[in-house]
């Protein structure tokens, strides 16, 4: 069973779509869920969905770990023609997951109490992102 | 076929549980193993299990890459109320795997000669960690 | 259905093998592809395959993020007897994927337009690397 989720983004940060995934799985039995993001400048992430500060801190940490290519310390980068946020986005996409595999029991993902599923956007401009989903039931 | 592994931790570092997983798989046929950690402040990791220095160096590298939120250079973090090791633990959980997928042949994981499976704990206090496991046989 | 891909490397950097994987899948139906690298000093990576500068920039970023153990700032590392590129290779293998899960539709991976599959080599000396593949059809 396969589908595709769409996540609309408005700049760098985490966009939760746990509810959409849970809705698609409802009524299914046991199985294995795979999510795969079909882009090279955003990521998937499982993270705490209790305190929104966690999501802000994550965005800010990765912005410091991989500064825009216009920053002096990033002068060694050569792929800069698509904007200062482009090559850092590729680097963040290497550091963060492109796919997630989650066991499913009686139609429910075996997430921990505080785990949510996020699309982590790395580009500045608004985007529409596609996540391929596969359920092995 | 699904189960859950429990790993007891005593502070930051790598805790191997390859043997427990191998034991569960023994007697099975071909398939695909998925491990998924049900927390946002620890990780799964496949790493060298020959020299314990590798595991110590990994812990120390990640401690430097993501210092405690009490460190001056981390003053921009706002999620600090659960202790100086909490937000760094979330960041490390973003940088390291939450799920692992390993092909299985005749009941044995297709690990390389030096690969072991670890729970990478990021919190200071002792914890009991749960890893969901799914075998598609 | 299982197989193994071999990637020959000549020093740090990204080696694409999307074509080999696509060839193996051709003629298959729907399913889930899992790739798993059987080493602890190289990685798998999905990245842009349009501009080779992206691949060079990625290699250079990770070289700066994890310098050779002979660099002064890495003096705290103790696993150094296998060469200055060895422990950094283990660290990069922790930061980058060991396994990838990709949904397959009518024998084709659901990759985005610019996504290619790479072996990311972290060691300096030439190597032969093995990637286990599992197709659930």
List keywords for this structure.
137 residues, five-stranded antiparallel sheet, homotrimer, alpha+beta, three-stranded antiparallel sheet, 3 helices, elongated
Strands, helices and their partners?
The structure is a homotrimer of 137-residue chains.
Chain A: E1 2-9, E2 13-16, H1 18-25, E3 31-37, E4 42-48, H2 52-65, H3 86-95, E5 99-105, E6 108-109, E7 115-121, E8 127-136
Antiparallel strand pairs in A: 1-8, 2-7, 3-5, 3-8, 4-7, 5-6
Structural class of chain A: alpha+beta
Multimeric organization: homotrimer
Alpha carbon gyration radius of chain A: 16 Å
**What characterizes the major β-sheet of chain A?**
5 strands, antiparallel
Q: What sequence of helices (H) and strands (E) makes up the elements of chain A?
A: EEHEEHHEEEE
Distance between the termini of chain A: 8 Å
What is the number of helical segments of chain A per DSSP (H or I, 4+ residues)? 3
Low-confidence stretches of chain A: none
What pair of chains forms the biggest interface?
A: A-B, 31 and 29 residues
Count of distinct strands of chain A: 8
> Please, what is the average pLDDT of chain A?
97
Helix content of chain A: 10-25%
Residue share in β-strands of chain A:
35-45%
Overall body shape of chain A: elongated
Order of strands, widest sheet of chain A: 1-8-3-5-6
